[in-house]
């Protein structure tokens, strides 16, 4: 910059007066601060940013199931937030928590580094009283005779589902043991990049399913592998969401069902490794976390996904329960605090939020992928709190009201569906993932306004019916990844890329809840149709595989037995054909990967405890 000599200004001292020098210096320092601040908003790929804001992690991994919509991260979602100024919503709590979690994580890593296969013995408070917990349940968790149905046809169907689980498991064990998932056509294992080096996703996801089905030899093999071979000292980039719902959820539920202390120790170690993800200016966690090294990570300003940071609450509350350390609950309550405070377009929650500024990044709203389990966790947080979490309840019913006002549609053929919303414009499409919402609406039907109870039951039934139609209108009787209601389509996929089925559970999940809450036999029939279709089209010689086109008469397999098939699809089918006293809904909520977590009865747990021995079937 060139400074010209101004008339009347002394040439001495670079030609500037003291006050002018001061203004100039002020201007200069402002400029430097601005430039430095702007670095945070540059894309991660810009060299300058890497030089000045070096961090320990590398590029984000792809998250979500292989074909999951969360794949948008892989495509590098454009982040308009980069262009905005920082309006940090970070409150006092998150600053305090940042300091706390930094300390605890470092300490834990130092401890776990010295240990083998899982680093047991990390920050675990062993004071959790498992016997007392059991006494606080209202009913025995496995019911009378493990929920065995009295009617022979239902029993036979349940046995069939158990056989499917054993077949899926045995093949995983033979060809992919210790890997994350089975590739049934090539008979080998798949590791993928969602779990940051963690292995055995199918084992951890299967523990509770094997246990409730009474497949005890298989359960014991799974338990032994977790004990001896589940190495939590991995060092890769993982999806916080996927690790939480599958590993944390799977281990928590294995502990609560069996009382095996080893599961608790493992989950405590893993829980601590997730805490650094929350070290962002807002406390909204980033989607990707390096499990191996503690890092700030927040210089990476990509947006966080509603369904990911909104799907931690159930597991984190239980991590606090078991460790007697409030940090986990504080982390998720901080997320909720921000979501409550932020303005919501038409009362809706968009799918992307900047963890740096705490602002929405795009106005895309969906009950399917990217949004789905956030809504699920609101109502389940309320139910899991023994109906004491009034804030979750309020958020859930207001969100549902906004969804009904803006997204729920009726097709010309009379099918109710939940469209997607893009800045006020409706996309008349429903994803398979959105089909969980029949189950969600029905479990919340009783606790809304009394005059709305019947309305919610009807809405849940209509959505479940629509999702069933998406199955029955295909050649295979399995549903596509997404189906549309425009251009003459009614619950069918119009794009080639939406025609696949990857063994997803959501439609069957809604059948299970609808059955439990209405006992309308059609839900069991619909579930059985799905079993027959799975057997006919997805069962191959060495396991189960997804298919590429549900409308094709001759199927083409995708060579992947997803871990959620064992954890969710088969578990929900088994429950559908069991009596209601197997994992009664009064005592258990299922996380979004179908891992049962118990209702937290604070007053009972802190008081004398329940009076009944719930350890054995009554
Ligand atoms: C599962 O991992 C979970 O249900 C998740 O919430 C959504 N996607 C898969 C199953 O489709």
Fold topology:
Layout (H helix, E strand, L loop, with lengths): L17 H22 L7 H6 L39 H22 L16 H6 L16 H25 L4 E3 L4 E3 L10 H12 L3 H14 L7 E3 H19 L2 H14 L13 E3 L13 E2 H4 L3 H11 L3 H15 L10 E2 L6 E3 L1 E2 L6 H13 L5 H17 L1 E3 L5 E3 L1 E3 L2 E3 L1 E3 L5 H7 L9 H20 L9 E3 L21 H13 L3 H17 E2 L2 E2 L18 H14 L11 E3 L5 E3 L3 H5 L12
Antiparallel strand pairs: 1-2, 3-4, 5-6, 6-7, 8-11, 9-10, 11-12, 13-14, 15-16, 17-18
Helix pairs in contact: 3-12, 5-6, 5-18, 5-19, 6-7, 6-8, 6-19, 8-9, 9-11, 11-12, 13-14, 15-16, 15-17, 16-17, 17-18, 17-19
The chain binds 1-deoxymannojirimycin.
Pathway: Protein modification; protein glycosylation
Protein name: alpha-1,2-Mannosidase
Family: Belongs to the glycosyl hydrolase 47 family.
Task: State the helical fraction.
Answer: 40-55%
Low-pLDDT residue spans? 1-14, 39-122, 295-301
Q: Tell me, what's the shape?
A: globular
Structural class computed from helices and strand pairing = mainly alpha
Q: State the strand order across the main sheet.
A: 5-6-7
> How many helices?
20
Largest sheet: number of strands, sense, barrel closure: 3 strands, antiparallel
Average of the residue pLDDT scores: 84
Count every beta strand, where a strand is a DSSP E run of 2 or more residues: 18
The end-to-end distance, rounded to whole angstroms, is 86 Å
The proportion of strand residues reads 5-15%
| Rg, Å, rounded | 26 Å
Ligands (ions, cofactors included): 1-deoxymannojirimycin
Q: What do you see in this structure?
A:
With 618 residues, this protein is mostly helical. The chain is built from 20 helices and 18 strands. The strands form eight sheets. Strands 5-6-7 form a three-stranded antiparallel β-sheet. The longest helix is centred in the first third of the chain and has 25 residues. The protein is globular and about 95 Å long. The protein starts with 17 loop residues before the first helix and ends in a 12-residue tail after the last helix. The relative contact order is 0.13. 1-deoxymannojirimycin binds next to helix 19. It comes from Oncorhynchus mykiss (Rainbow trout). Its EC number is 3.2.1.-. InterPro entries: 6hp_glycosidase-like_sf (IPR012341), Glyco_hydro_47 (IPR001382), Glycosyl_Hydrolase_47 (IPR050749), Seven-hairpin_glycosidases (IPR036026).
């Amino acid at each position: 910059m060139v400074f010209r000599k101004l008339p009347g200004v002394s040439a001495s001292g670079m030609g500037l007066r003291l006050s002018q020098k001061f203004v100039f210096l002020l201007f200069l320092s402002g400029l430097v601060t601005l430039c430095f601040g702007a670095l945070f908003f540059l894309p991660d790929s810009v060299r300058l940013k890497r030089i000045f804001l070096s961090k320990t992690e590398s590029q984000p991994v792809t998250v979500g199931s292989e074909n999951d919509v969360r794949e948008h991260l892989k495509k590098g979602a454009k982040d308009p937030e980069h262009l905005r100024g920082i309006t940090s919503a970070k409150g006092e709590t998150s600053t305090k928590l940042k300091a706390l979690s930094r300390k605890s994580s470092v300490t834990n890593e130092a401890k776990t580094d010295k240990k083998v296969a899982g680093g047991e013995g990390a920050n675990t408070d062993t004071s959790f009283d498992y016997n007392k917990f059991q006494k606080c349940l209202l009913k025995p968790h496995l019911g009378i005779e493990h929920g065995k149905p009295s009617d022979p046809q239902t029993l036979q169907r349940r046995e069939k589902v158990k056989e499917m689980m054993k077949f899926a498991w045995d093949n995983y064990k033979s060809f992919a043991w210790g890997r994350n998932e089975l590739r049934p056509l090539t008979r080998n294992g798949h590791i993928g990049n969602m779990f940051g080096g963690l292995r055995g996703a199918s084992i951890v996801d299967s523990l509770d399913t094997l246990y409730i089905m009474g497949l005890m030899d298989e359960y014991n093999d799974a338990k032994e592998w977790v004990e001896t071979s589940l190495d939590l000292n991995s060092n890769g980039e993982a999806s916080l969401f996927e690790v939480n719902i599958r590993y944390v959820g799977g281990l928590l539920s294995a502990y609560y069902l069996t009382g095996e202390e080893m599961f608790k120790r493992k989950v405590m170690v893993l829980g601590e490794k997730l805490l650094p993800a929350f070290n962002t200016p807002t406390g909204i966690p980033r989607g990707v976390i390096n499990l191996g090294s503690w890092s700030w990570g927040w210089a990476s300003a990509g947006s966080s996904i509603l369904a990911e940071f909104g799907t931690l609450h159930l597991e984190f509350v239980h991590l606090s329960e078991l460790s007697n350390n409030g940090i986990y609950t504080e982390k998720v309550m901080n997320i909720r605090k921000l979501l409550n405070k932020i303005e919501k377009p038409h009362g809706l929650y968009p799918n992307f939020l900047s963890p740096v500024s705490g602002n929405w990044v795009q106005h895309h709203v969906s009950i399917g992928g990217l949004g789905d389990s956030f809504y699920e966790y609101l109502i389940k947080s309320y139910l899991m709190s023994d109906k004491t979490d009034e804030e979750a309840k309020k958020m859930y019913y207001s969100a549902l009201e906004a969804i009904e006002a803006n997204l729920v549609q009726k097709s010309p053929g009379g099918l109710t569906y939940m469209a997607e919303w893009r800045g006020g414009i409706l996309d008349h499409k429903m994803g398979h993932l959105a089909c969980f919402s029949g189950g969600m609406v029905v479990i919340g039907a009783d606790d809304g306004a009394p005059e709305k109870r019947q309305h919610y039951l009807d809405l849940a039934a209509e959505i479940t019916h629509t999702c069933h139609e998406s199955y029955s209108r295909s050649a295979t009787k399995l549903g596509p990844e997404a189906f549309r209601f425009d251009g003459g389509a009614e619950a069918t996929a119009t794009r080639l890329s939406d025609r696949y089925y990857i063994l997803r559970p959501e439609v069957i999940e809604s059948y299970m809840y609808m059955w439990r809450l209405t006992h309308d036999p059609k839900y069991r029939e619909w579930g059985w149709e799905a079993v027959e279709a799975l057997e006919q089209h997805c069962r191959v010689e060495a396991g189960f595989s997804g298919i590429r086109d549900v409308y094709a008469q001759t199927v083409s397999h995708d060579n992947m037995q997803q871990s959620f098939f064992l954890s969710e699809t088969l578990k929900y089918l088994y429950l559908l054909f069991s009596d209601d006293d197997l994992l009664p809904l009064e005592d258990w909520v299922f996380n979004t990967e179908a891992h049962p977590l118990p209702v937290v009865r604070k007053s009972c747990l802190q008081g004398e405890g329940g009076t009944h021995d719930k350890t054995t079937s009554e």
